[in-house]
Structures are given as C-alpha cells and as structure tokens.
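Objective 1.3, modelling of assemblies. Example input:
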Amino acid sequence: MYVIWGMKMKVKIKNFLVLALIALTVTATWSQEAESEFIKSIYDQSLTKGSSYDWLHYLTKKVGARLSGSPQAAAAVEYTRQMLDSLGLDRVWLQPVDVPHWVRGEAEQVRIINSTVLGTQDLHAASLGNSVGTGPLGLVGEVIEVKSLQEVEDLGRAKIEGKIVFYNRPMDKTLHRTFMAYGGAVDQRGGGASQAAKYGAKAVLVRSMTTATDDVPHTGALRYQDGVPQIPALAIATRDADLLSQLLKQEAVKVFLRNTCRMQKPEPSFNVIGEITGSKYPNQVILVGGHLDSWDVGEGAHDDGAGCVQSMQVLQTLKRLGYRPQHTLRCVLFMNEENGGAGGEAYAKAAIADNIFHLAAIESDAGGFLPLGFGLSADAEVIDHYLEMVMPFNDYLQPLGLELTKGGGGSDIGPLRPQKGMLFGLSPDSQRYFDYHHTHIDTFDKVNERELTLGAAAMTTLVYLLDQLGSP
Amino acid sequence: MYVIWGMKMKVKIKNFLVLALIALTVTATWSQEAESEFIKSIYDQSLTKGSSYDWLHYLTKKVGARLSGSPQAAAAVEYTRQMLDSLGLDRVWLQPVDVPHWVRGEAEQVRIINSTVLGTQDLHAASLGNSVGTGPLGLVGEVIEVKSLQEVEDLGRAKIEGKIVFYNRPMDKTLHRTFMAYGGAVDQRGGGASQAAKYGAKAVLVRSMTTATDDVPHTGALRYQDGVPQIPALAIATRDADLLSQLLKQEAVKVFLRNTCRMQKPEPSFNVIGEITGSKYPNQVILVGGHLDSWDVGEGAHDDGAGCVQSMQVLQTLKRLGYRPQHTLRCVLFMNEENGGAGGEAYAKAAIADNIFHLAAIESDAGGFLPLGFGLSADAEVIDHYLEMVMPFNDYLQPLGLELTKGGGGSDIGPLRPQKGMLFGLSPDSQRYFDYHHTHIDTFDKVNERELTLGAAAMTTLVYLLDQLGSP
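Predicted structure (tokens):
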C-alpha cells in the first residue's frame, strides 16, 4: 500500500480502509454480540424506566440551591442517601468531610453614580464565591478597565491604587468548545481580586463568564492569595460590562458597591457513596460521580444536579438489569466542588490510605446536555496503555453518537490521579452550558429529560465496558 | 493484510489503520490548507457577526406564527425579502405560489363528560391541521382506543361506527434518533381520520407526537383521502392520553368535542429567493433553504424559523467574506411546507422547466439545535458517485463535530430529486425537537444562539466545499 499524494488515490485508499474496517466489523460482530445486546438493554432501561429526571426534580425544586455548609446541602445529602438506599445496593454510606461555609448575605448593589450620560444606573451583579463583603455602608471608587491580570501589573500601583479594577476580557466566542473559552477567561474571576489588591485596588468587578450577552450575573469561586489584602469581588452581567466599558471610553466612572457576603466557620458535611461490590475484584473500583453542592443561586440543575442523578442512575440501571460486576462499582456524590474541593480531596485520601485502587473514575460535571463522548486522562506513565485498551470501545460507542478521546477528567476525581487509574470526563454538548453556569437561571426547566438520560446511559455503557474489558 | 479473529490482532490492524490515516492526513494538510483556513473564517464570521439570531427574534416575536395564507405569512415574506435585499446579493425575488388557507377558529374543547371517577374533565387539545370542525354545537361520542390504523380495520364497522376513535400508540422512547420514533407513530396523525371514517367513526383523537409526558398538545397536518367522509380530528396532550387510556380500562368514556376550524379558499403567496450568481457555472445551483410558513400556534421558532435564518446567514457569511462562488448559490425560503408542500412543488417545477440544474440542495428543517452532520440522498443511479465525491469532506467536517452520512434530504427539496442532484438534510441534535414541534411552546426562547449559529456555519461550510469540489 503506497501513500500517494492527491485526492483520487486518496479516495481509493479510503475505499480500501473502509473495506478493511467492514471486515473487522464483521469479525467483531460475532465476538461482541453479547456486549452489544447488553448495551441495548442499558439504553432501553435508561430511556424508559430511569429515575434521574425525577431525582433531579426533587433535588432542584424541593431542595434547591445547596452551597457547602448550608442546611440545603445537608438536605441534599440526606435525600440522595435515601434514594441510593432504595436501590438495593450492597452498601450505602456517608463519608465525613469538613467544608467551608460562605454566605452571600443581602442582595448585592453595584451602581454607577456619576455618569453625565446615564445618571444613576444599577448593574446586575453577584458577589464571587469566597469574597469578603464591603461592610454595611458599601464603598465608592473610580473604575479602571483592564483585559488581563498582566495588564494590572503593567499599569502598576500608580494607576491601580484606590481604584475598582474592572476585568473585562470576554470568553472567545469563536472557539467551538465553550470550555476552552471558559479556560481562557476564568483567571480573571479566580485570581483577579488578589492581583488587583497587590497594587492597592479597593475592589474588583469581573465580566461574567459566559458567551451570552444578557443581564444574568455569574458567580463562581475566587481564591485569595495568602499575604495579600482581601478585597470584595463581584461579577457583573455581560450586557452591563459592555455598557460600563463603553461609558469608560467617554468619561470617568464612579461606582458604589455594597455586598455583605462573608466566610463563616467550617461545617461538617459528607460525600454520599453507594456501591455494588465486585464479584472478582472487590478492591478495584470503577467510580461514577458528580458533585452534590451547588452555588447558592438558582437550583444547581446542570451544575451539577445532573451529574449526581446520572451517576445514581448508572447503579440503578445495572442493578435493575441484574448485572453482577467483576469490579466494585461506586457512585460518589462529592461535597464542596464549587468552593474548596474538600470532598474530592477527602475521598482520594481515604482511598489511597485504604489501598482501594480506582481502575477508573468517570465524572459528569459539564451539564446534563446531549452526551457526545468521554475524555480520558491518566498519569503519563500509564496513559498509552490505557488508550490502547479503551480506544476499541469506540466500536460500541460511535453508533451511540459517542466518541472516546484523549484528555478529560474532572476536579473531584483529580486527586485520585496518583493511583494511576483512568480518569474520564463525560463530554456533553457544551454550547448552552455557560448560559446557565453559576446563575439563578440554572434551573430544572433547562434540563431535557432525554438528554439527561442519554448521559446516564452513556456512563452506564462505559462502566459496563470497563468492567468487562478493563484491567490495570 | 489478513483479517484475523480476536481482539489482539484487531488492535494491531487498527494501529496500522491509524498510521495509514495519519499519513493521509499529512498529505491532506498540504493540499487542503486553503480550504481549512477559509472554513475557519466561516466559523469566526458566523459566531461573532452573524445575523441569524436577530432575524429569528424578529420572525418569532414581531411576526409570530405564520401559517400559509395568513397575514403573518405575508409579513414573513416581506421581512425576509427585505433582509435578503440588504445583503447585497446579485438577485432577490419572490416566486408566486398558491397555498391552502386553513384556520383554527375558536379554542378547541375536548371534555370527558361521564366519568364516575373524574366527573367532567377537560383535556389539552389542538385540532389537527386541515381538519374540518365539529360545527358550533360540537358532538358527543363514546371513545374507543386503538394502537394503529390496522387495528381500526381489524375491529371493523361493528365496533367503530358512531365512535370517537382514539389513536394512542406512543413514539418509541428507546430509539436514539427521535425522528425515527416520529416516523413510527405519525401515520396515526396523517391517516388516522380517514381510516376511522371508512368504518363510520364520527371523529378521532390522536395522542400527541412527542416523547415528552406533558400537557402540551401537538398539531400537525392530516390528509383526508378522496371519497371518504371528512371527520374532525384533534391531538390531545400525552398526559391526557395516558389518563384517558387508564380510564378506558375501567369504564366506558364519553367525550364532548368542539372545534370550529375550517379550510378556506386558497390564497396567493410566495417563496422568497436570494442568489449569488455563479462565476463559472451560473446555471448550476447549490441551494440552502428552510420553510417560512409555520403552524398557527407558538412562534415557529425551531420549525422552521431556524432553518430560514440559517439559510439566509449562509449567503450573508459568504458575501461578507467576499467569496465569489463558481456555482450559483441560492437561499430559498419555501412557503407551505406544513400543510401542502405547494412551495417546494412550485420551485422544483420552475427549476425543471427553466433547465436550472441543482447540483445540491441543503434543507434545514429539524430545529436550530447543535448540528451533528448532514444526511445525503439522491437518485439511485447517481448516489454512489456522489457519496464517493463528498465522503472525503468528512476530513473537514469531523473536527467541527459534524459527520456526513447516507440518507437525508427534506420535504421541500424532495421535488428536485428528478434532476438527479444531491439532496442534503442538516441533522441537529434531535432530543429536544419533539418537545416543541407544532406547539404553542415552539418559541424564540427555546433556541440557543450558539447552536443556531453553528448550524448556519455548518451549512456554509458544506456549501463552500460543494462549490469548490463538487461536480455533477
């Protein structure tokens, strides 16, 4: 077989490849009939009898927002424990974990107070998670717009001191995968406050992390650097960010800020865990999980109620189908992904201490949208071995509209990386995620039952294939 | 190369295939750099400066529902003509077409009147398009449930005469592609009335065509058979269908029906057409299109405002990029897809009479959701030739999350089939489509800007590739 330049020969080679693949498919059909049949039963069961959508309804509408340390987070722990308990699993338990307890306080105020054009104008704002408050009287400052943390350093103390720094670099709309655009902008939210504080700023405003242009402010965690003064930080809606930016081109703008959010003392909480014990390798775990906490606005429907109920449905489906796994299958609902990651850390610490190897962990934390595949990551030493093992799964996955690719994982399962197992992230359609992410409109009605359920079925399929064909 | 049974050898063969594909990719990179760069510019332009979402806002919120023959349909014609006219195309015109003019009349009533369990109970109902009405006094009849047209024949006149036939076969939720489930159920809506009338039924109720369980009735066209009495036909919401079915297991159920819908005289209307004339093959057309009419409930946002504005954006994007096509590119907004198909028929008739060959026609009429690919169909004589020609496009499409497959098209471009060109249908994520299809909740807010725009970019990319690389 020669590789020849030009389209015509290329087509011929392609035809040959197609024939070769068909031949492989035919041989595959015989040895893989049982697997394909079982996968069909997973989908039938999931799409007609799965409980994920009903569970999500309860979690969003009856429990609601459930930030770490809140009474609602405790309700979510108890509800999901009871639901897992009702599935007839081998074991359901709570794993204690101490979590930070941040509260938003009164409704935030961000008000332009001196515009010759607009007069007084309120902006749609939300304090960033972990932020300190302004105090009850609020504060006033002149706004200076920047596009990056680097720009703050470049401007230096002379320009920044005493100001309110306004980070306004948008997410890049031209990127097909919105998580890439998020990754390219979110440093402003996470690190912008401390960066500005180093140069004497009194507060920061951050353009909301979304590709949409609307009036919805997006909260999300900031991290204060040790040894740097802690200053208040708030997100403003993208339409308001555009307005403020335009105004700043014309005149100096002063803003009044008031928020009363604060970090309180840590509280006890739990990861919620359910398990079907492996018949052959009880100490080798295949984990599915999401995070049970959410931000305190909205209902935490896509982020990450969806991932929780999908993970629960994986065990429900396999249990109902009477499947006896070789490996131990665990559903883990992590606490405190949003503003600390304490649940993921505690889980991995215990697993490593108890020498419970996690052959694979699959996290769903990108929304309950149409599943398009999974991304795999692992320690550099072992990734090639794993890729060779799991890439043939694509024969099963592609007819389901799924593709397994390199690069994935999730923040709750990340701490398991030293065990050198496989870390998978479910990859759904990402186009709508940042319309709702960390907002008061991340509500139940934004989740489609079939898309949510197809995600659960996809995860169940991957768990099944890993249990049948995977090895360390 | 031997095809050997078993997984290990399979992996080796696969590795070989992967290497071969990498080699092909490298050769491809050199010859295809210009194409890839232009496609990138299509996406950048579409995602940052496209007008489809704004146009859709006007079409849904300012014009609204636009059933054939209605004043709103005329407004939609005029609005889209003006918008196309603003793009600086070579030619924009209206193609006359006479259309049926059906009107819904007063709000429908479907009421259980004799239940010992429920007493009187109103059901959520919508007359099927083209249906006759009951007359102002309504009618009362006993309900008989069936699961198919065949069952009506099996039951025969003895059981059917004088009854209200209730078609209640659900769409199959286990089918991954919801259009397959729709295709498996929609004969009840299209042909159920005449089938029941043949055996003396006085009216029919049809379970709404959706996978969702809710209170939303779904209208849609029925076709009366010639020579069979025309009886009223209404869709009821799926939750009501389940209720009625359960009740029928316990007792005989009588229902009162009243609707005042009617077919009026045909009205003049138009297809709206915009064109960039081909520099090399002006008489060979690559067409993009959707249908401008919608049902009279809701706003016709996904069905098919989305397809119209996407098609308009294809020409907008290529025009703005200064692209000079070899073939003539046409955007055609068809009238009367929903209840007659007159626009598609008139367009094809004129094209065939004028000897304007349509190398390809791409229809978007499956909703403005995340695009996943295109399906291709063509006359049996030429399909293999076309498949061989366009399958290599997948090298460009797959990195964009798109796949070109066999089997597709659309009802408006179907009449072009005798020309033996290519007929493509855009295939978006189908999971949510039947939540909204033909209902009062098919509204602007159900459309995501990025998903809509990605569909337009996908169509633009296919048009570009066909223009560059396609030949009859």
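The mean pLDDT of chain B is 93.
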